Inverse folding.
C-alpha cells in the first residue's frame, strides 16, 4: 500500500512547521525521517495517522484520504509512537484485546504474540506498572496483532534493552519480507540508513 | 463497537472504583452541607429540595466527567482510538453511556442519604423519579461529554469543564428541577410532562450533535 502526502501545511500558533510539503512512499518502500528536535518528525507521523489535524493539503493511503470524517484510511496503518497510547488501568492482554477490537481483528493470537515479544510473565499486569522497555514491547505486540500494510515507527528502539533490540531486528526482517511500507523516525543516521531505502531530512 | 468501548470504561472503573467513589463521597458531602445549612429553616427544605438535588447531581457529574475523560489523556491512551478505523462519533456515544452509568450509580448511592439528611417525605412515584433522573442525567452527560471532548486537549480543562458546562446545562437543571418539584408536590404527570419533554429533547439533540461533531473536536 502506498502513502502519498501532497502540499501538506501545518502551523502551531502561526508558526509554520510544514509548508507545502510533499512526498510519496511506494508500496513496500522503507523510508527514514531524520531531523533535529522540533523539526516536525513526530508531528508528521501524527498527521498521517489521523491523530493530528492538518491545516491544508492531502494525505492519501492507497485510494483513501486521511480525514477525521472517514475512518477507512486508518485501518491500513499503525503508529508506533514514543508516547504510550495504551490504557494504564488495563492489563497488557486487555489493552491488546481492546485495540484488536477497534480494528475488528480477532484476538485469538494475542497470547502467542505476547509470548513472542517476551511479555508472557507480565501479561496480566496493569500497564501502569510497565517499564519503558516493556511498553515498547507491548507496542510491538500491537503492531503484530494489527498487521497493517503501513507502519509508522517513531524511534522504535527507545527504551529497549539488548534483547528488545534483537526482537525488533527480527520483527523488522519479518515486516520487510512481508512487503510492509515503513516510515521510520530515528536520531541515529547510521542505523536509519542501514534500515531504509532512502532518507527524508526535515529542517 | 459501542459495547466494546463502553466495556473498556467499565473495566477500568470496576478495577479502580475511582469515579463512582469520588462522586458518591462528593455528593454526600454536599448533601450534608445542605442539611446543616437548612437547619435554621427546616420549613424551607421542601420548597428547595428539588433544586438542591439537581445542584448535587450537576456538581457530581462534573467530577465524574472530568475523571472519565482524564482516562483518555493518561499516557495518550486516546491515541489508541484516534488513530484506529473507528467512527469517533461512536466513541462519543460510548462515553455518554459510560458517564450515564457512572452518574446514575452514584445517584443511587447518595439519593437515600439525601432524603434522610434533609428529612424529606418519600411518598411519590419512584418510577417517575427514576425517569426524571435518567433523562436529566442523560441530558447533563450528553452536554458534558461534548464539552469534555472539546477541552480534552486544553491545559486548563479541570477549570474549563465547569465553566462551560454550568451555563450550557442550566436549561437542563431548570427543567429537571421543575419536574422533580412537581413530583415532590404530587402533581399529575400531565401538569409537567412539558418539562420532561425538554429533558428528553436535550438528551437527544445534544447526543446527535455530539455524535456529528466529535470527529473534529478530538483531533490535536
Amino acid at each position: 500500500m502506498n502513502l502519498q502526502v501532497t502540499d501538506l501545511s501545518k502551523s502551531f500558533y502561526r508558526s509554520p512547521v510544514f509548508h507545502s510539503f510533499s512526498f510519496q512512499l511506494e508500496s513496500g518502500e522503507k523510508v527514514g525521517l531524520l531531523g533535529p528536535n522540533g523539526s516536525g518528525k513526530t508531528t508528521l507521523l501524527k498527521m498521517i495517522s489521523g491523530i493530528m489535524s492538518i491545516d491544508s493539503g492531502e494525505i492519501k493511503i492507497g485510494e483513501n484520504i486521511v480525514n477525521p470524517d472517514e475512518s477507512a484510511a486508518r485501518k491500513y496503518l499503525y503508529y508506533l509512537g514514543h508516547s504510550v497510547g495504551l490504557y494504564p488501568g488495563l492489563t497488557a492482554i486487555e489493552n491488546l484485546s481492546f485495540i484488536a477490537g477497534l480494528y475488528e481483528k480477532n484476538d485469538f493470537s494475542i497470547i502467542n504474540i505476547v509470548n513472542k515479544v517476551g511479555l508472557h510473565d507480565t501479561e496480566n499486569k496493569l500497564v501502569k506498572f510497565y517499564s519503558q522497555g516493556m511498553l515498547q514491547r507491548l507496542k510491538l505486540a500491537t503492531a503484530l496483532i494489527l498487521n497493517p500494510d503501513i507502519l509508522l515507527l517513531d524511534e522504535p528502539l527507545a527504551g529497549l534493552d539488548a534483547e528488545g533490540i534483537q526482537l525488533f531486528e527480527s520483527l523488522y526482517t519479518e515486516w520487510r519480507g512481508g512487503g510492509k511500507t515503513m516510515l521510520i523516525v530515528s536520531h541515529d543516521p547510521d542505523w536509519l540508513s542501514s534500515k531504509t531505502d532512502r532518507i527524508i531530512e526535515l529542517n | 463497537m459501542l459495547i466494546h468501548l463502553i466495556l473498556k470504561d467499565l473495566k477500568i472503573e470496576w478495577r479502580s472504583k475511582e469515579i463512582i467513589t469520588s462522586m458518591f463521597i462528593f455528593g454526600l458531602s454536599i448533601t450534608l452541607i445542605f442539611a446543616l445549612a437548612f437547619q435554621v429553616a427546616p420549613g424551607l427544605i421542601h420548597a428547595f429540595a428539588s433544586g438542591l438535588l439537581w445542584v448535587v447531581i450537576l456538581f457530581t457529574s462534573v467530577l465524574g466527567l472530568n475523571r472519565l475523560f482524564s482516562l483518555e489523556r493518561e499516557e495518550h491512551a486516546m491515541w489508541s482510538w484516534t488513530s484506529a478505523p473507528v467512527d469517533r462519533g461512536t466513541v462519543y456515544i460510548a462515553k455518554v453511556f459510560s458517564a450515564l452509568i457512572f452518574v446514575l450509580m452514584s445517584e443511587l448511592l447518595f439519593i437515600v442519604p439525601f432524603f434522610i439528611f434533609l428529612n424529606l417525605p418519600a411518598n411519590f412515584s419512584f418510577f417517575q423519579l427514576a425517569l426524571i433522573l435518567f433523562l436529566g442525567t442523560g441530558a447533563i452527560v450528553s452536554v458534558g461529554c461534548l464539552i469534555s471532548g472539546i477541552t480534552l486537549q486544553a491545559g486548563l480543562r479541570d477549570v474549563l469543564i465547569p465553566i462551560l458546562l454550568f451555563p450550557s446545562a442550566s436549561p437542563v437543571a431548570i427543567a429537571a428541577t421543575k419536574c422533580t418539584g412537581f413530583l415532590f408536590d404530587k402533581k399529575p404527570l400531565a401538569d409537567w410532562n412539558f418539562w420532561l419533554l425538554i429533558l428528553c429533547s436535550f438528551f437527544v439533540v445534544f447526543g446527535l450533535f455530539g455524535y456529528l461533531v466529535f470527529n473534529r473536536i478530538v483531533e490535536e
About this structure: The interface with chain B takes residues 46, 49-53, 68-69, 71-75, 77-79, 81, 83-90, 94-95, 98-99, 101-104, 126-128 of chain A (CB under 8 Å). Chain A has a mean pLDDT of 89. Residues 3-201 of chain A form a domain with the Rossmann fold fold (CATH 3.40.50.300). Residues 162-177 of chain A form the longest helix (16 residues).
